[in-house]
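I hope you will forgive my troubling you with a question about protein structure. The matter concerns a single protein, recorded as an amino acid sequence and a row of backbone structure tokens. Please examine both parts with care and let me know of anything in them that strikes you as inconsistent. Thank you for your consideration; the sequence and its tokens are set out here:
***
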Amino acid sequence: MIDQTAADLTSYKRDLLLAVYRANQATETPVGADVKRELEALGQTNTQGGQFYPRLNELVERTLITKNDHPDDARGFTCDLTEEGREVLTQLFVRNAISLDIDVAELDLPAEPPRPGRRLCGRPRG
């Protein structure tokens, strides 16, 4: 299920997941502007409301992100990855590592093993 969810996301939504993660790493209570800034740092140029908010809300509806009123400013919101969102982001990193033939530490692997015939790192397991 997680692998399929990761495969179904557009590049913008994948970057948005990563931007939410990075904003939460950088700031205790990140607001939408922090997420936009991280998204722009990832190379996305279309961060205005017409693309940003609908995609963010789609990820909320898919339960990959939580979105809550900001505790100090009723005009703003905070957001974070859900557990499922973290699993999808991890799966995306693992898929990228596999495609680039990069070693992935055992502790960083998702609980669900990849499909048979796929390597988890640059060398055959065994």
Q: What stands out?
A: The two ends are 27 Å apart (CA to CA). The chain has five helices and two strands. The chain has a mean pLDDT of 78.
